[in-house]
Design goal:
This protein is α/β, with parallel strands linked by helices and about 300 residues long. The protein has a single domain (about 1-295), classed as Alpha/Beta hydrolase fold, catalytic domain (Rossmann fold), CATH 3.40.50. About 40% of the residues lie in helices and about 20% in strands. The protein has an eight-stranded mixed sheet, sandwiched between helices. Helix 1 (about 45-50) links the parallel strand 3 and strand 4 (about 55-60).
Length: about 300
């Protein structure tokens, strides 16, 4: 099964672009994409999802893909959209996972939809900007540091800076799918190895093209949401949570994952000692099976 686009209405009437992957009768898992990203962000092994009995649902956060923008949105606001999608598709219970920029959003869903979420996973997710006791910038690639500093200068500055970067991304991918990220990034070796894989390149290429379909407002609003209050407290979370992070990650440094693991109630930490920012395509389906089993 691969339903690449279903349009669903949010509670306030906004359009949300939704995709589904794997077994249509399988255990439901919401996969919340990174920043930037789109509904095309999913494990490359789609056949493996079906064999594992997993029904993975992804959607464009507001401003990405075909989902209408929600200016001023906070991290917590995604819980309303996930609930609307689940209602429209008749899903009472589901697991949720989010990677990178999707990590905080997965935690928000776990906090606010506790009666429906069986288990949650935060993968290489950024910590709150005001996280007490965390040097938020330590170990972060200079380009990411610069991006978040633009966010601190406000919406217009951030939009003006990100727009040409998105154009460069699309031009680079069109010329050479192996150049999903520019060579300027100081990535871990593990990440570069994954980006060399054709299956990963295929997914990332589709993901980025959809992410920028309506411009960069989704990216802008994500970054602004990360450097302001998330709108919920981690202490609200009362479902099983796994926090995964890579010790060699320079996009969201390991300190963020360690902080989240220490502050999400009852969280189970999984540290990939040689890992960077990207999930391992060869183990991702099994990780999702474990997430479903945790609930």
């Amino acid at each position: 099964m691969a339903h690449r686009l279903t349009t669903i209405k949010a509670s306030d009437g906004r359009a949300l672009g939704v995709a589904q992957w794997g077994d249509p009768d399988g255990s439901a898992v919401f996969g919340l994409h990174g920043t930037p990203g789109s509904r095309f962000g999913r494990p490359p092994d789609e056949a493996g999802l079906a064999r594992a009995g997993l029904r993975v649902l992804t959607y464009d956060r507001p401003g990405y893909g075909v989902s209408e923008r929600r200016p001023g949105r906070r991290v917590v606001d995604c819980a309303e959209d996930v609930a609307a999608i689940a209602d429209a598709l008749g899903l009472d219970r589901f697991a949720v996972t989010g990677g990178s920029g999707g990590g905080p959003h997965a935690l928000a869903v776990a906090a606010r939809l506790a009666s429906r979420v069986t288990a949650a996973e935060c993968r290489v997710g950024v910590a709150p900007f005001d996280a007490e006791g965390l040097d938020w910038w330590a170990g972060m690639d200079p380009q990411n540091v610069e991006e978040f500093r633009w966010a601190l200068q406000g919406e217009q500055v951030l939009r003006d800076r990100l727009a040409p970067l998105a154009e460069q991304d699309l031009a680079r991918i069109a010329k050479d799918p192996s150049k999903i990220l520019s060579d300027d990034w100081q990535l871990a070796d593990a990440d570069r190895e994954k980006l060399a894989r054709p299956d990963v390149q295929r997914v990332f290429s589709e993901d980025m093209r959809a992410a920028y379909a309506a411009g960069v407002w989704g990216w802008v609003d994500d970054d602004l949401a990360f450097v302001t209050g998330w709108g919920f407290d981690l202490e609200e979370i009362a479902v099983p949570v796994t926090v995964r992070y890579g010790a060699q990650d320079v996009l969201v440094p390991a300190g963020h994952g360690a902080w989240l693991a220490a502050h999400v109630p009852g969280a189970r930490a999984v540290v990939h000692t040689e890992g960077g920012h990207l999930s391992d395509p060869d183990t991702r389906v099994e990780e999702l099976r474990a997430l479903v089993a945790a609930g």
